[in-house]
Amino acid sequence: MTSVHESTLQYTGTGIVLLQFAFTNLLVTKWTIKANTFTTFRADRRAAAAEEGRALRPRPPQLDSDTSAQLTANAIETFSSRFAMASFVPQGPKPTDCVTKVALSVSCQNLLDKDHFSKSDPLCVLLLNTSGPHWCEVGRTEKIMNCLDPAFSKTFVIDYYFEVVQKLRFELYDIDSDNCNLQEADFLGELECTLGQIVSSKKLMRPLVMKDKRPAGKGSITIFAEERTDSRVVEFEVAARKLDKKDFFGKSDPFLEFYKQTGTGWQLAHRTEVVKNNLNPTWKPFRIPLQSLCGGDVEKPIKVDCFDHNNSGSHEIIGCFETNLAHIQQASATYAAEFDCINKKKKEKKKGYKNSGVIIVKKCSIVKEYTFLDFIMGGCQINFTIAIDFTGSNGDPRLPNSLHYINPQGYNEYLSAIWAVGNVIQDYDSDKMFPAFGFGAQIPPRMQVSHEFPINFNPSNPFCAGIEGVIQAYQQCLPQVKLYGPTNFSPIINHVAQFGKQAVHQQTASNYFVLLIITDGVITDMDETRSAIVNASSLPMSIIIVGVGGADFTAMEFLDGDDGILRSATGQAAMRDIVQFVPFRQFQNAPQEMLTQSVLAEIPGQVTSFFNTMKLKPPHGDTPVSDPPASAPPSDLSS
């Protein structure tokens, strides 16, 4: 009998092949299935490009067919078989469609205190069990300083499948290092459960345990589940005036917390950044999902707390107010809405008390937030560029211990990484023409070191026809160059960023650029690379770094801004996190599709966050949802 979570599929070719299709490994398969439905859009894109006068990218000169076949036959056969599970679309029973999206909010109580002179600085990591002992990181919350009872404002949004057992693990860490490296962090406890358990209870409370299953002190975790059926978000621009002075040697360091009313009390929906030493602060514009703020009901009460931030973690309340979204919209329609910030204790003690400052909502508008599929199916092109490390630390390509050594089966770690990523992402590029570059090698004819050379040695046309073309060019390039050094990333990042700068002026979400860097070593131009990434963070661009070999990749983890804000050497902060680092060897004994899943996991979110922030619509998408009419608020909620 076929189990609920596993189907046995048979098909005939040269013989009968038995395939075990596990639903818990569906991410890459799901991408491939959906990508196949996009083929009907490609002809439309070409026609649209012709109408707009946009030239399609030129194709490279065709290689001799016999040479190409001889060079790549083994490699293509090897990788095709390795990724059969990732690209196979079964006939008959199909993988289940996503039932819905679920947002998970996390808070903890009584965490272990690992710091001697302060409290723990907790961060929560969510992992999803993909198959057997293999877990894939879904995301991380923000780090909260000096707090044993944290309420994290960042939520995890994941797909929920009713008939699939989706195993989750929540891990808590005390983060003390600047780069938020988990290897250097103190473990505070974990919880393993299923998504079904959380969804069925809506609010799951469990004790935390250590790795050996001993209790993690008195620590516990609370997880709230909320179905995400509304794609609208609320855009806010908020300031304050004449807040109370709370610091003895300074003013106040204010931040805001927005709360949604639930059946069990107030639930945190958003926390702003801290504005240092300012009684008249202006916070950065921010967005809150409409469902997270008020469940889609503009008449539902919301609460806003204003705190003075203290490094000790004991933040002082400045004041608060309650209102609803309808009232904010109505009040801010013609001018900024103002709300008295009330400190209840001061109001009770002080006669003639008026307020502890005024919170000013300059903008409050409800807009549709487009999804990744909205952009892709609406005509957005994902432009994929590959950069390969040809530095001397890889070893002599002629020797088996070299990372560039191609074994008789046509395989090495570089080729595996190229195939894993390109095999999926090529379905999102209409002409399947990929520019591929190398760096860190001496190249012909003068054998000078280059950190940005096309691997087909054609600077005017560096494009390769499909992933097979990239493999051909790589194999032809390898014997012609001399591996050298150093390992500089900034030239190739700046090269792709030039195209991003041109695209940033587009009127719609037409183009997004993804740079895949495959490297074996430590970056030698770290300051320049940091600056290049910070500059690129304001462009429609993402960077994937795959580390091959066994080198120390601590610097790569630093560039991956999952745990904090990356800054340039001069202190300039990145607008958003655009780097994803994946160490290849962590996946050597795992199913091949897991590498693809981990490498591409952050791309959809990075694409949508950029275009939604820049208010760019899909080229062929619908118009944004307009603000719903705001009815008059109840009198007891007005400020």
Automatic annotation (TrEMBL):
<dbReference type="InterPro" id="IPR000008">
    <property type="entry name" value="C2_dom"/>
</dbReference>
<dbReference type="GO" id="GO:0005925">
    <property type="term" value="C:focal adhesion"/>
</dbReference>
<dbReference type="InterPro" id="IPR037768">
    <property type="entry name" value="C2B_Copine"/>
</dbReference>
<feature type="domain" description="C2">
    <location>
        <begin position="82"/>
        <end position="208"/>
    </location>
</feature>
<keyword id="KW-1003">Cell membrane</keyword>
<dbReference type="InterPro" id="IPR035892">
    <property type="entry name" value="C2_domain_sf"/>
</dbReference>
<protein>
    <recommendedName>
        <fullName>Copine-3</fullName>
    </recommendedName>
</protein>
<comment type="similarity">
    <text>Belongs to the copine family.</text>
</comment>
<feature type="domain" description="C2">
    <location>
        <begin position="215"/>
        <end position="339"/>
    </location>
</feature>
<keyword id="KW-0677">Repeat</keyword>
<dbReference type="Pfam" id="PF07002">
    <property type="entry name" value="Copine"/>
</dbReference>
<keyword id="KW-0963">Cytoplasm</keyword>
<keyword id="KW-0965">Cell junction</keyword>
<dbReference type="InterPro" id="IPR010734">
    <property type="entry name" value="Copine_C"/>
</dbReference>
<dbReference type="InterPro" id="IPR045052">
    <property type="entry name" value="Copine"/>
</dbReference>
<keyword id="KW-0597">Phosphoprotein</keyword>
<keyword id="KW-0539">Nucleus</keyword>
<dbReference type="InterPro" id="IPR002035">
    <property type="entry name" value="VWF_A"/>
</dbReference>
<dbReference type="GO" id="GO:0030971">
    <property type="term" value="F:receptor tyrosine kinase binding"/>
</dbReference>
<dbReference type="GO" id="GO:0071277">
    <property type="term" value="P:cellular response to calcium ion"/>
</dbReference>
<dbReference type="InterPro" id="IPR036465">
    <property type="entry name" value="vWFA_dom_sf"/>
</dbReference>
<comment type="function">
    <text>Calcium-dependent phospholipid-binding protein that plays a role in ERBB2-mediated tumor cell migration in response to growth factor heregulin stimulation.</text>
</comment>
<dbReference type="GO" id="GO:0046872">
    <property type="term" value="F:metal ion binding"/>
</dbReference>
<keyword id="KW-0106">Calcium</keyword>
<dbReference type="GO" id="GO:0005737">
    <property type="term" value="C:cytoplasm"/>
</dbReference>
<dbReference type="GO" id="GO:0005634">
    <property type="term" value="C:nucleus"/>
</dbReference>
<feature type="region of interest" description="Disordered">
    <location>
        <begin position="614"/>
        <end position="639"/>
    </location>
</feature>
<keyword id="KW-0479">Metal-binding</keyword>
<comment type="subunit">
    <text>Monomer. Interacts with ERBB2 (preferentially with the tyrosine phosphorylated form); this interaction occurs at the cell membrane and is increased in a growth factor heregulin-dependent manner. Interacts with SHC1; this interaction may mediate the binding of CPNE3 with ERBB2. Interacts with RACK1.</text>
</comment>
<keyword id="KW-0472">Membrane</keyword>
<dbReference type="Pfam" id="PF00168">
    <property type="entry name" value="C2"/>
</dbReference>
<dbReference type="GO" id="GO:0005886">
    <property type="term" value="C:plasma membrane"/>
</dbReference>
<dbReference type="GO" id="GO:0038128">
    <property type="term" value="P:ERBB2 signaling pathway"/>
</dbReference>
<dbReference type="GO" id="GO:0005544">
    <property type="term" value="F:calcium-dependent phospholipid binding"/>
</dbReference>
